[in-house]
Amino acid sequence: MNIADIEHFLNVLPKLNFLVVGDLILDRYVWGTAERISPEAPIPIVKVDREETRLGGAGNVVNNLVSLGCHVQIASVVGDDSGSEELKRLLQGQGVATAEIQSDPKRTTTCKIRIIAGHQQMMRLDHEDCFLIDPLQEDRLLKFVEKTLDDVDVVLVSDYLKGVLSDRILSEIIRLSKKHSCPVVVDPKGKDFSRYKGATLLTPNQQEAELAARGEIHNHDSLLATGHSLYHELELGALLITRGHRGMSLFTEGQPIHLAADTREVYDVSGAGDTVLSLCAAGLASGLSIATSAELANLAAGIVVGKVGTATVSPAELLTAALVKDQSLGRKILSKDRLAMVLEGYHQAGKEIVFTNGCFDLLHAGHVQYLQKSRKLGDLLVLGLNSDESIRRLKGKKRPLLHQTERAQILAALDCVDYITIFEDDTPLELIQLIKPAVLAKGGDYVAAEVVGRDFVEGYGGRLVLLEFEDGKSTTNIIDEVLTRYRD
Q1: Which DSSP category does 205 fall into?
Q2: 2-42 per-position pLDDT tens digit
């Protein structure tokens, strides 16, 4: 996967349409601290600080897709209780229609209550009924699926074995999807994977694959045997086995592809399977290959496991993670819009962004020392680079000596520069307003009152720092020295 794939993916996301069918779950989180043991029993006492309710199960799949900016429809069956009303309110708050979520007074809406102290889950309480939906509910659900298939790019099936996805529902969804040439991507559960036969893509974790194949995956050979067996027996388009810290393994007609885990601190793996399902489906819908879609899902899963609870990934987080992973210098050079998206993630993380700008025509030691000093003022340095046209307006038609692309590539080779964007205006004010840096760095030859953007930055609590250039180091001096030495 390269940055071009990510760029394409991000550009088409708002045009994509999905249908999610599966078990809706309410995830409640009780957050607190545990500092002592109960005198009544050998259990910790959790002092509750706050409570939160999130969409879980198929709802988390919907949430992941909505977070990417996609259009989503949902079909499911829940109870006729307060939990179902809360589920619908959460979905409606995301702009998702709930008319095809059927209410069954005999059913309890599944609710999982997790009690968390610090980052440690202490206990989980489940309220649920897991009996199969009745034939009339099946008929209504399937009628909606068939009516919707011509208008969606991919069908996602989220099975948590709560009763919505009967054998009939699953076989008909796969049959109807094939009839309408619509991919169907499934996150499976249980021992009997024959229920998912013919799916475009199946995304079990390793434990689920072992259970379905009735054999343990304990080395590379057993992984290959399990993967090939399930892939061929189930007549799948592809099989993606997620393996936690061991990464993922993709099985198709060709050679298996093994993806290393995107290593980062793991706080919570709950909901990671929903993210994998969602990103694989979004990748396929955007026209990416199944292998590239799996890489995208692997990148996203590495992000969400670093969050507590069922979580989602944003386009900005995906782009940032892809840029960090990409080792090419071109990853640092971004358009203004893409730069703003990347920096959104840094702002949310509380990182201090340093901004400076300039022509940087014929990069010299003075430039490098100035940029190194600027980088030390915060967590990352963003450089606004004057375009060729803006330099001509400022310095005359004989400048710049180097094209803007060359100047950007040279600057990108410096470790102290994190991101570069080229701007056309005579001043960087519009760029500063877009970036909202914590620190505005300029050369010491400026007077504070004359620095463009100073009032804006200081207005929200940022600061201006003037840095001294090394005496005698300038592009003009270099040009004059060359002319002096080589003049006939």
Answers
A1: B
A2: 777 888 888 899 999 999 999 999 999 999 999 899 999 99
Handedness of CA 281, 283, 284, 290 (dihedral sign): negative
**Domain coverage including residue 409:** 330-486
**CATH number of the domain enclosing 375:** 3.40.50.620
Q: 174 with 266, same domain?
A: yes
Tokens found for residue 215: 């054999």
Tokens of 83: 């939990």
| Per-residue model confidence as pLDDT tens digits over 58-115 | 999 999 999 999 999 999 999 999 999 999 999 999 999 999 999 999 999 999 999 9
Q: Which of 159, 262, 274, 418 is catalytic?
A: 274
Q: How far is CA 103 from the centre of its chain?
A: 32
Tell me the two tokens of residue 438: 């914590």
The CA–CA distances, whole Å, from 171 to 68, 160, 428, 453 equal 29, 16, 58, 61
274 is known as an active-site residue: yes
Matching residue, tokens 């999807």: 177
Where residue 62 sits, what CATH number does that domain have?
A: 3.40.1190.20
The total of structural domains in the chain comes to: 2
Tell me which residue has tokens 């939160």. 52
Q: β-strand 24-37 against 111-117: which pairing, if any?
A: parallel
| Rounded CA separation 295/289 (Å) | 10
Q: Residue 52's closest CA among 26, 34, 33, 78?
A: 26
Residue 72 lies in a domain: yes
Alpha carbons 488 and 467: distance in angstroms, whole number = 38
Last residue of a domain, one of 281, 296, 326: 326
Let me know: does 132 contact 163? Beta carbons within 8 Å: yes
Tell me if 322 is assigned to some domain: yes
Do 319 and 389 reside in the same domain of the chain? no
